[in-house]
Amino acid sequence: MARFDPLLINTFAIGSTHYADQYPGDEQNARIVLTVTPEGGHAIPMILDTGAPWCVLDPELAEAWRLTFKEGYKPTRRLTIRGVEYDGSLVRAVITLQVTHGRDLVVEATIFIPELRPGDAWLSPNFLGLDGFLNRLRFAVDAAENAFYFGSADG
Amino acid sequence: MDKILLKPDPLAPDALVVLKKMAERKDHQGFAHMARGIEWSRYRPTDLIQAIDLALALDMVQMARELAQTGRQLFPQNERIRCAAVVLSPPVVLETRPSQTHDIEVSHRWMREHSSQYKGQWVAVRGGTFLGSAPTLNALYQHIGLARHDANAIVVRVLG
Questions:
Q1: Would you state the torsion angle of the CA atoms of residues A40, A44, A47, A52, taken in this order, to the nearest 10 degrees?
Q2: Same domain for B24 and B63?
């Protein structure tokens, strides 16, 4: 149990979860990496990024989980992800934020699925973005024990 | 004669051209002023879609959302605008439910201590136990026979 669970859960938050502080394979950069489950799939790590407008999902995961078959909106212009422009589609999908204490939070979010050219590989992490996901949540971080507290901003 | 700088007029016939130029210049403030002022009912749905896409390319999500909602009211039969309005609508908290997962922390610890050995590979871990690795996600599924909805298994492509 995280230190502030008794104080925050059922008041500020509905749950807390342990976060990793680096994305697998990227040991040089400190991150807040949450474990979430997009619909149709397994748990995956996603970096909390308040500077990113969208959630961004590895296209290989999106294809395996058939998210690429969902009705989406493909802008005629490329979108910029981490400074690189990509073609791709925006889709609505359900993402479950997993807890270690309290209750899971289930959110319908907007996800950007990059479209790669043949032979290209996606070499970026998965992201949880602000406008597509985080801005309906309230959250707090206790860096002392890698605890992420969260709840619905509406409730 | 001094050049007179006029504030762009959203009602001018060439407003869409000006809007594109503002997008090219990455003039977010000017773009928002113009886009909000344009009488979109005078334009075609394809013009509005262009404006939505320009806003998206500028990372102006709220602006794109507003334009899509405007388009939905003005052109309810247009399928592409309807789709944009749905996809760009704000995220919605659907429900809360009892936790279905366990041992996230030990899986994080495994990733921290061991994932660097698998750079560029897909790996799966459950409850801190390594399940397998493969160069592609499909190969990983075949290799370890992972159930597609096993919420306790964490799957990731380790950055290379």
A1: -20
A2: yes
Q: Does B26 share its domain with B70?
A: yes
- The per-residue pLDDT for range A105-132, each reduced to its tens digit, is 999 999 999 998 888 888 899 999 998 8
Domain span at residue B132 reads: 104-157
The partner residue sitting opposite A107, judged by closest CB among B93, B100, B154, is B93
Residue of A nearest to B52 (CA): A75
Give the domain-ending residue among B61, B87, B113.
B87
Is residue B95 a part of any domain in this protein? Answer: no
| The pLDDT value given to residue B103 | 84
Tokens of residue A105, six digits: 């939070």
Both B82 and B52 in one domain: the answer is yes
pLDDT band at B101 (very low <50, low <70, confident <90, very high): confident
Query: ipTM score of the complex?
Result: 0.92
For residues B148 and B157, give the distance between their C-alpha atoms in angstroms, rounded to a whole number: 16
CA A107 to CA A8: how far, in whole Å? 20
Tokens representing B71 are: 């388009």
Q: Å from A51 to nearest chain B CA?
A: 10
From A78, A110, A131, residue closest to B57, measured CB to CB: A78
Nearest chain A alpha carbon to B86:
A92
Tokens at A55, concatenated? 């959630």
Can you give the pLDDT at residue B2? 44
Which pLDDT belongs to residue A123? 87
